[in-house]
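Protein details
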Amino acid sequence: MPIFGGRSNYPYVCARVKAKKSFLLSKDAFHRMLGMDLSEIGRYLGETQYRDEMTALSSRYSGATLIEIGISQNLAKTYTDIMSYATGHLRELIAEYLHRWDIYNVKTIIRGKVTRAPIEEIREILIPAGSLSPELMNQLILATSNEEIIETLRKQSVVYVDEELLRNALATGKLAALEDELDKEYYSSLLKSIKETTVAEKRLLDFVRREIDIVNLKVLFKLKVEGASGESITQYFVPGGMEFKSDRLAKMAAATSMKEIMDEIRQTSYSEFILSELEAFEETKDVSSLLRALDKALIEIADKFSHLYPLSILPVLDYILRKKTEVDNIRIIARGKESGLDPELIKRLLVL
């Protein structure tokens, strides 16, 4: 990732982000949307910070597609806007954190090419909020052969892609190993970018390591439900977590009952966030409630850190997470409405 010169402008960026945070939708707004149809949701969003996107796209799209493309474009615009007025090491750190969208876009394009998705469908779900140029992403989307995809990715330096894993993924359609490696590379690079020269950056490192904990717990729960073996689960864990080191994760992956996993989690600070969901899981086997509880935990951790260090990158990351959660919730409502799901079921899928 590039190194940006100049002094970091923490007070200015934090003030701008605080103003943006005031425009996030309230819980009440989501409850109201649950009682609306798709056209009403589109009109409602047109009266919020999504107005420009909904207006510009309404002549080309409608329904859930209009909503999804509109909120995705707004998300990318919001993140790039923050980058545009950040300077110095602060901008470098934000860029490193937002690099996850470069990873997302590469994964999305490769998945689309493997499944032979229409070009426009691939374009519609990209989030150009990282450092990959629109031109390069377009080259990948328009590539007509696996070799052209490999060559295009070989020439760029934003996202490191293991060529052997890429070639195998394109040939077989099995993307798990490639996507796992991309995630590991992302977090490895992010951890290295944190200098720890201030107390706030030390807390930033703590936050990223806790995010890795949550990523690994989500992987653990999803693969356990699918019946994966302990050995196969461990290969997907991201190194660098705070409370869940490799030995503890391996022990949990090898566990033969949820009680063993619960006993390990009880010994950590995460127990306050997900223990009740773990206990309910033993009866319901509903892993989605566990995943939502972990998403909420990360937001609560970010909120706590942002209040402790109000003139640092931590309030920025708190907002970045909240904005993504808002967009995810709107997308869930729109797609749930499109599929005819009961509003109460949609509500249970939201992270509020």
Observations:
- The first helix runs from residue 10 to 21.
- The two ends are 33 Å apart (CA to CA).
- Confidence is low (pLDDT under 50) at residues 1-5.
- The chain is about 70% helix and 0% strand.
